[in-house]
Design a protein that fits this description.
five-stranded parallel β-sheet; single chain; globular; 5 strands; Rossmann fold; about 45% helix; Arc Repressor Mutant, subunit A; alpha/beta; about 210 residues
């Protein structure tokens, strides 16, 4: 199949992507894919190296592996947010960790991709991150008043006993929603996120068939 030519970014839209991944082959694959999708990649093999890159350059999007040598991915992200608060984050992980999922929710990441990720999923995540970086994603959603009838659901059960970080986040949000009897405002407050952000996530879950 003939390789796709890189698409040029629209005028005024920088697409600087910082890729933080310690596995050499995956890092090289991500670099090629990101470049072919019309973005400008910078790579780092550790959180410490990534922070040094960020000292000299502003990035629009971060693709971050959580399981890094030395500094953890989430610790690195917390520090990077202090200097570049508008950076949009795509989490890349090969393992599930509930505490990491909970912390990532508070850091308002764009998407979770489980390694190995499909290039189509990566492209969709990058497009969402780019549009969100330039305030063109997640339109204002109407918040019903009063609260609608409580939703009834059960968090999805894993097929093989293992969960990706994305699935852990889903289960955590749905469990808190069930605990609060479907009350979105109380759920958002307990999760530490905005009601608008909660509605956005619930809309995603409805499309996936996780909610009625």
């Amino acid at each position: 199949m003939k390789p796709r030519e890189p698409s040029a970014p629209p005028p005024g839209e920088a697409r600087e992507v910082l890729i933080v991944e310690d596995e050499t082959r995956l890092r090289e694959m991500l670099t090629r894919a990101v470049r072919e999708m019309g973005f400008a990649p910078t790579v780092a093999g550790s959180g410490e190296t990534a922070l040094r890159c960020a000292d000299n350059r502003e990035f629009d999007i971060l693709i971050l592996d959580l399981n890094l040598p030395g500094m953890s991915g989430l610790d690195m992200l917390h520090r990077l947010r202090q200097s570049q608060p508008d950076i949009q984050v795509i989490i890349l992980t090969g393992f599930g960790d509930l505490d990491a999922a909970r912390r990532a929710i508070h850091l308002d990441v764009v998407d979770f991709l489980t390694k190995p990720c499909a290039l189509g999923s990566l492209e969709l995540a990058l497009d969402r991150a780019r549009r969100r970086r330039f305030k063109t994603v997640e339109p204002d959603l109407p918040i019903p008043d009063p609260e609608p009838e409580p939703m009834r659901f059960m968090p999805p059960e894993p097929v093989d006993g293992t969960l990706s970080l994305e699935e852990l986040e889903q289960r955590h949000i749905l469990a808190v929603l069930e605990k609060n009897h479907g009350n979105r405002s109380a759920t958002a407050a307990e999760l530490g996120i905005s009601v608008r952000k909660l509605y956005y996530r619930l809309g995603q879950y409805q499309k996936q068939g996780l909610l009625p």
